[in-house]
Design goal:
Layout (H helix, E strand, L loop, with lengths): L3 E6 L2 E5 L5 E4 L20 E3 L5 H4 L2 H8 L3 E4 H9 L5 E4 L4 E4 L2 E7 L16 E7 L4 E4 L9 H5 L5 E5 L8 H11 L3 E5 L11 H11 L3 E2 L6 E4 L1
Parallel strand pairs: 3-4, 4-5, 5-6, 10-11, 11-12, 12-13
Antiparallel strand pairs: 1-2, 1-14, 2-3, 7-8, 8-9, 9-10
The chain binds nickel (II) ion (NI) and manganese (II) ion.
Length: about 230
């Protein structure tokens, strides 16, 4: 029984659960200089969009239409997606969880913005806490600044956290290190860096600090890289 995590670059993540469900988070391929593949080549049973920004909504509409995968997001974004012709959506909101076929997915707090690409209101941005059917706890912080309630998310007993380190739009390396202290995950993978010069970071240097100063095991992936647990 293994769960496979693929980092496609930026904040685009694929989760393949031990029971075979493919969940695609923030599918940004077109126009993403760091993307390891293209939108027409990825498969999904479910898509999750954390917030309205273009580098997170990305290719969600096109992939949903091609694959028939429902899109899970906040209520405002799922309404907007429906207006764009997406047939299957599942609205949730911050603090709310739902037992999907692939596991229990809860939207968590994120400190960020969420306007949609056409300027429409995108509700509140979210992080994603997924409990798989075999009990793994996976936290995808997506775009956020540091916040103290990450301690509460850490109380869940995380097997994996994926946290932004890019700075400028999200936590930078120093705050992301504090986030690892709050979250106390077994494993941590940095995201949302090196896509553009504005968010260039030395992930290996950050991983060394995580290894030296926390109990978490850091894993630096290259775009397209896979981590299994
Ligand atoms: Ni954003
Ligand atoms: Mn972003």
């Amino acid at each position: 029984m293994t769960t496979k995590i693929t980092w496609y670059g930026h904040a685009t993540i694929g989760v393949e659960t031990a029971d075979g469900y493919k969940i695609l988070i923030d599918p940004f391929f077109t126009g993403n200089p760091a993307a390891s593949t293209t939108a027409d080549k990825v498969n999904a049973d479910f898509i999750v969009v954390s917030h309205g920004h273009g580098d997170h909504v990305g290719d969600a509409i096109e992939i949903a239409k091609r694959t028939g995968a429902p899109i899970i997001s906040n209520y405002e974004i799922t309404n907007w997606l429906t207006a764009q012709g997406v047939e299957k959506v599942h609205p949730q909101h911050l603090g709310g969880g739902f037992k999907h076929p692939f596991g229990y997915l809860k939207l968590t707090l994120a400190l960020h913005g969420s306007a949609l690409p056409d300027g429409s209101y995108g509700g509140n941005p979210a992080g994603i806490l997924l409990t798989t059917n075999d009990g793994l706890k996976l936290y995808f912080a997506q775009d956020t600044g540091l916040f103290g309630d990450m301690r509460l998310i850490g109380d869940e007993g995380l097997d994996l956290a994926m946290v932004p380190i890019g700075d400028n739009f999200t936590m930078g390396p120093d705050d992301a290190l504090k986030a690892v202290h709050f979250l106390r995950p077994k494993h941590v993978i940095p995201i949302h860096y090196n896509t553009w010069p504005l968010i260039a970071q030395d992930a290996e240097a950050w991983a060394k600090r995580v290894a030296a100063e926390t109990e978490a095991q850091p894993h630096v992936l290259q775009p397209g890289g896979v981590f299994t647990l």
